[in-house]
Specification:
- The chain has 208 residues and is of the alpha/beta class.
- Helix content is 33%, strand content 30%.
- Helix 2 crosses helix 3.
- The radius of gyration is 17 Å and the shape is globular.
- The mean pLDDT is 97.
- Bound molecules: 1-O-pyrophosphono-5-O-phosphono-alpha-D-ribofuranose (PRP) and uracil.
- The site of 1-O-pyrophosphono-5-O-phosphono-alpha-D-ribofuranose has 23 residues, from strand 6, strand 9, helix 4 and helix 6.
Length: 208
């Protein structure tokens, strides 16, 4: 799976375990998800380019650095919202777009209900965030929207991915690299990831 980077940091693996645990209450789930999102933000930006400029310290002038390109973070509603704060803690200058999609529980096809993106997507490094990549239908649809709006450089950050989702992205959007914390075994007959962590949106927002 050339389009997949699994981030195997010990702190991230520990935190994913808290999220998997069905006893973790909603407030801790949200808190830990935000923390992992921040750590994933470090990994997905590892090769972003810098521009140099002079900065005056209290003692003398020295070289300083800023990120060269503008960054747009795009959560897939609802569950992606749980990762926004963690990303913005690390990337405070990032602009935020939104894609609203939910899976039809019978067909597992994504249904779109909202989208709003910042301008000049074509020049930005776009990071699509959603804790779950299951069949890959939602992420595929979200990337298609982003490309229609001009986005050219897109990465996905999820926490738990299923092989089916990784394959679907490779097929429809081979230019998009996926970063996840875990590649899980498979999907069950309702499209849930096994072992997974359940319905991420429900666990974040307490709607189960
Ligand atoms: C979840 C998850 C992804 C999608 C993944 O959202 O947050 O967006 O399912 O599944 P897929 O890869 O098979 O498309 P869901 O549809 O449950 O909507 P919600 O966040 O509003 O609960
Ligand atoms: N969406 C979720 O929230 N969880 C899954 O396991 C699959 C899709």
């Amino acid at each position: 799976m050339k389009n997949l980077t699994i981030v195997k940091h010990p702190i991230i693996q520990r935190d994913v375990t808290f999220l998997r645990d069905s006893r973790t209450p909603n407030d801790q789930f949200r808190h830990i998800l935000a923390r992992i999102a921040g750590m994933m933000a470090f990994q997905v930006t590892k090769d972003f380019e810098l521009r140099e400029f002079d900065v005056q310290t209290p003692l003398e002038k020295t070289k300083g650095y800023a990120l060269k390109d503008s960054i747009v973070v795009v959560p897939v509603l609802r569950a992606g919202l749980g990762m926004v704060e963690g990303f913005l803690n690390v990337l405070p200058d990032a602009r935020v777009g939104h894609v609203g999609l939910y899976r039809n529980e019978e067909t597992l096809q994504p249904v779109d209900y909202y989208s709003k993106f910042p301008s000049q997507l074509s020049k930005a490094l776009v990071i699509l965030i959603d804790p779950m990549l299951a069949t890959g239908g939602s992420a595929t649809a979200a990337i298609t929207f982003l490309k229609k709006k001009g986005a050219k450089n897109i990465r996905i950050v999820c926490l738990v991915a299923a092989p089916a989702g990784v394959k679907m992205i490779a097929k429809h959007h081979p230019d998009v690299q996926i970063f996840c914390a875990s590649l899980d075994r498979e999907l069950n007959n309702k499209g849930y990831i096994l072992p997974g962590l359940g319905d991420a949106g429900d666990r974040i927002f307490g709607t189960e």
